[in-house]
Amino acid sequence: MKTISEIRKDFPILAEKVHNKPLVYLDNGATSQKPKIVIDAISEYYTTYNSNIHRGVHHLSQVATTAYEDARKKIQSFINAKHAHEVIFTKGTTDGINLVANCLGRSYINSGDEVIISAMEHHSNIVPWQMMCEERGAILKVIPINKAGELIYESFLELLSEKTKIVAITHISNTLGTINPIKKIIKDAHQAGAQVLIDAAQSVPHTPLDVIDLDCDYLVTSGHKMFGPSGIGFLYGKESILDALPPYQGGGDMIKEVSFEKTTYNSLPHKLEAGTPNISGGIALGFAIDYINEIGYDFIQKQEKDLLDYATQELSKIEGYIPIGTAKHKASVISFLMEGTHPFDIGTIIDQLGIAVRTGHHCTQPLMRFYDIPGTIRASFAFYNTKEEIDTLVNGVKRAVRMLS
Ligand SMILES: Cc1ncc(COP(=O)(O)O)c(C=O)c1O
Fold first, then answer.
1. Residues 340, 322 contacting (CB under 8 angstroms)
2. Is the Cα dihedral 68, 74, 77, 78 positive or negative?
């Protein structure tokens, strides 16, 4: 098993300096850093076998196709999907949700139908449903949360009815770190006859997922949050459900036969993957999965829990510390405010110390409205972070507060 210092060496960027200070990267919720094997996979593709996939008989095209389809198989086994063709490559979580909202809207949603989301969703899991509901005359319902940032489960059960067509919910809140009880949500939604989409953008880097055990209908995530490249992600969908969807976009690869009179469509996964994809991104995502498997979720979860507990304890000692999101089940994300200061000011001052945290609304404006705050300071940890980095954060925040008071 690798030590933390060996792991950190796998991520070249962690040795960088920012404003002449060692980088302290605590913005993993926005995007994770990339291990060298992921960076090298992209370089190797363009250096040695760059070629378009699925349509060439020549050697390079076949090598590229095999590598891309191998990555699909790695994702399949990573999430325990039954079939590789249940994995659809997308640009990321946003793209996956738009795909489902668009295709489902056109084929399955009628006037008066209902879609349920929650009050803690990222804009990506709000706006596509709003757009679809507007077009189809459907109604968007929102599960409320309590002040700790947990779903009010009884309200969810009250919202569910035979009108509910889909429940689209985040597994882990990017702003609050709340871990939602998705298995229970899926079971209750299915009992009401609704489909369920899980936004796993924040969960895949932290927790193993088994789509058969969860029994979710769709699951979406982004490569860049799980140590892979940006511009690539995937949608998982049950075979029968994806088969029933109409194509998302029209173009190359998604067709069986085209004539001016009528076009017939390809089978899964190609039906939902029009055009030349992000080939190097898909291949490198497969390497990111290899890396996660090498480190192992046992190690990841233990390390992140230690970091979360330590950071919560140390930040709580600072006078004026106001945590936002104190759910019982939390991932390694801490959102907070410092009394009498603006989050942007704290973020800007600690940036000068080499500390990268996120400040603002984190693409969850309705959540900010619920707490009646302009934004938060968010520190989000990955398994490569250390307690020393948390000490640097705590000292930086103290210093910023002193400067601002
Ligand atoms: C919970 C959640 N959903 C969706 C997204 C959107 O992901 P992407 O921008 O990679 O499509 C994010 C990104 O921060 C997120 O945290």
1. no
2. negative
Cα(8)–Cα(159) distance, integer angstroms: 46
CA dist 379 and 325 (Å) reads: 13
Which positions ≥6 away from 25 have C-beta within 8 Å? 13, 14, 33, 356, 385
Question: Does 92 contact ligand 1 (Cβ within 6 A)?
Answer: yes
- d(CA 55, ligand 1 centre) in Å: 32
Q: CATH: 3.40.190.10, 3.30.365.10, 3.40.640.10, 1.20.140.10. Which one for 39-293?
A: 3.40.640.10
CATH H-level, domain 4-26+296-399: superfamily: Aspartate Aminotransferase, domain 1 (3.90.1150.10)
Q: How far is the CA of 168 from the centre of ligand 1 (A)?
A: 13
What are the C-alpha distances in Å from 111 to residues 137, 148, 163? 4, 35, 10
SS3 208: coil
* Global pTM value: 0.98
Active site residue 103: no
The domain limits of the chain are 4-26+296-399, 39-293
* Nearest to 151, CA basis, from 188, 114, 124: 188
If one counts every other C-beta atom within 10 angstroms of the C-beta of residue 184, the result is 11
24 close to 351: Cβ distance less than 8 angstroms: no
Ligand 1 centre from 225 Cα, in Å? 8
Look up residue 278 and give its two tokens. 């992000």
- pLDDT tens digits, 133-144: 999 999 999 999
pLDDT band at 55 (very low <50, low <70, confident <90, very high): confident
Q: Looking at ligand 1, which atom is closest to the CA of residue 96?
A: 11
